[in-house]
Each structure stands twice: as C-alpha cells, then as structure tokens.
C-alpha cells in the first residue's frame, strides 16, 4: 500500500506493533499508519515520538495522546467518540504488540463492544521472538505474562502453570529474576529445560539455554539488566492413577450431570473420555441408593 501525504484511513482503531529494540523492525504498514491516521495514541508518548523521528514521519499538527492504566477510563470515551465521528485512531504500545502485557486491552474491548472496527497491524513481539530462538517445542505454547508479585498468588500461579502441557513463556523484571528462577526450579522442576532471553534485538542481546537448576547457578553472581523473557519446556505428562480419577469423578458428579462430569474430568486429567465414562458408570453403580 502506497501511502502519500494526505491519505486517510477508514474510521477505526488501528493497533500497531512497535520495535522491542532495533528501530528498523517496524513494518512498512505500521509506518503507513503512523503517517496517515488522524489521532495517534501511545502507552509512552516519548517512545512513539522518538520512533517517528527516526523514520522521518512528521506529526503534521497531530498530537500524540497518552493512554495507560492510570488514565484509561477517561480516555476511552474520547477515543470511542472520535471513531464514531469518522476518525482513524492509532494505538501503539511502548514496545512490541499491543494487548500483550499492555494496557490497550480495555481500549480494544470497548471499541468492539461499541461495534467499531478494530484492525491489527502485526509486527514485533518479545514473546514470539523468544519462542523463536529458545530451541524449545513451539507446536503448543502458553503465554503466562508476569507472575503475581505477592508470594501466595505467585506460588498458586506457578503451580497451575506446572500442569499446563505446553511450552511456557514468562516475562520477568531484572529485580525479581533470581527469585523467580528459584521458584521455577522448586515448582516446575529443576530439570526442565529453559531459555532466558534478555534484551532481544538490542546491542546486548543474550540467550541462555539450559536446565533451570543450571541456569540458577550460572546467574547466581550476576546482576541482570534489561527486558527478560523466560521460556520453559513442557513437563513430563503425568498420568492420573485410579484413585485420582475416582476422586475427581466423585466431586464432579456431586455438582454436574453424568455427561458433563465425564467431559469435565476427561479434560482436566487429560484422559480418554471413554475411560472416564466407564469409570463414572462403575462409580455410579457402586453408590448406595
């Protein structure tokens, strides 16, 4: 698409991905949208203005409006009204893809609720970049984002993550990374393979690939800086024993009909539905009237 000065885009919310490091990772379509959208909105206005300067894109009288967690409730009605009045609104996260660990979720959701167009201009993503270079299975993965700050909530979060049969992707801050790796070892298993990806696409990019316990030792005396993504291999599949299956069915049958209970337990324990159904029939048969 060749966008010339004065070109206008159809009304809607345009979500553009911005570089996570190297400025040239921006897409041509994102540059077109930066030139042509009526209203520019950013999580970090300085970052977006700097990106536009690097790529010689003029504001042409437009302002860059801030949208973040602290002003979202005030900004959303204004931006919705702008689209309703025929304006094209561009939203850019500070770095990477909007709505991925980013405050833009409520903005996009509100636009959708009003029946307004929401258009993605795909591009850089720290999550996918890390998965690409981690060397771990990518056929099934789960983005976990940042773990909760509170110890109890974080432990529960990681215990739930440990049971997910997929490669796991976490974001973490340099200040918490050592403690976080210790917790991953304890809860997910010290032997699990992992990749720590730091400062992806930047000058000091670093990728470590090794079991979690080796990673803890390798980083013990280091102070890490920059953006960090931790990718962890899926765990060994745990096959539920007969008692676990019976207990799960007993609970489910107390709350659901037979068919619903079988479907729920089969999905939860990752067991064949036929096996669960036979076990449910046997359990129902043995129950006193």
From TrEMBL:
Residues 13-215 form the Tetrapyrrole methylase domain. GO terms for cellular component: cytoplasm. The keyword Nucleotide-binding does not apply. Its EC number is 2.1.1.198. It catalyses: cytidine(1402) in 16S rRNA + S-adenosyl-L-methionine = 2'-O-methylcytidine(1402) in 16S rRNA + S-adenosyl-L-homocysteine + H(+). InterPro entries: 4pyrrol_Mease, 4pyrrol_Methylase_sf, 4pyrrole_Mease_sub1, 4pyrrole_Mease_sub2, rRNA_ssu_MeTfrase_I, RsmI_HTH. Keywords: Cytoplasm, Methyltransferase, rRNA processing, S-adenosyl-L-methionine, Transferase. GO terms for molecular function: rRNA (cytosine-2'-O-)-methyltransferase activity. Coiled coil: none annotated. Catalyzes the 2'-O-methylation of the ribose of cytidine 1402 (C1402) in 16S rRNA. This is Ribosomal RNA small subunit methyltransferase I. It comes from Roseinatronobacter bogoriensis subsp. barguzinensis.
């Amino acid at each position: 698409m060749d966008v010339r000065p004065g070109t206008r885009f159809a009304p809607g919310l345009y979500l553009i991905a911005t570089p996570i490091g190297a400025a040239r990772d921006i897409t041509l379509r994102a540059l077109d949208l930066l030139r042509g959208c009526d209203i520019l909105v950013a999580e970090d206005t300085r970052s977006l203005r700097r990106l536009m300067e690097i790529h010689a894109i003029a504001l042409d009288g437009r302002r860059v409006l801030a949208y973040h967690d602290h002003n979202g409730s005030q900004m959303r009605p204004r931006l919705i009204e702008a689209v309703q009045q025929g304006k094209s609104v561009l939203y850019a996260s500070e770095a990477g893809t909007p709505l991925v660990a980013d405050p833009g979720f409520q903005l996009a959701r509100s636009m959708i609720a009003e029946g307004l167009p929401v258009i993605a201009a795909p591009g850089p993503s720290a999550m996918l970049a890390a998965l690409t270079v981690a060397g771990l299975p990518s056929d099934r993965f789960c983005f976990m984002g940042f773990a909760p700050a509170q110890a109890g909530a974080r432990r529960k979060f990681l215990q739930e993550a440990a049971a997910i049969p997929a490669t796991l992707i976490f974001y973490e801050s340099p200040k918490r990374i050592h403690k976080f790796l210790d917790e991953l070892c304890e809860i997910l298993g010290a032997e699990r393979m992992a990749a720590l990806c730091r400062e992806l696409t930047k000058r000091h990019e670093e990728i470590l690939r090794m079991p979690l316990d080796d990673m803890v030792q390798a980083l013990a005396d280091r102070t890490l800086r920059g953006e960090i993504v931790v990718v962890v291999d899926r765990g060994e599949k745990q096959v539920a024993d007969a008692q676990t299956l019976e207990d799960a069915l007993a609970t489910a049958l107390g709350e659901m009909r037979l068919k619903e209970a079988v479907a729920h337990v089969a999905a939860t324990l990752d067991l064949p539905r036929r096996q669960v159904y036979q076990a449910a029939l046997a359990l129902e048969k043995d129950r006193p009237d």
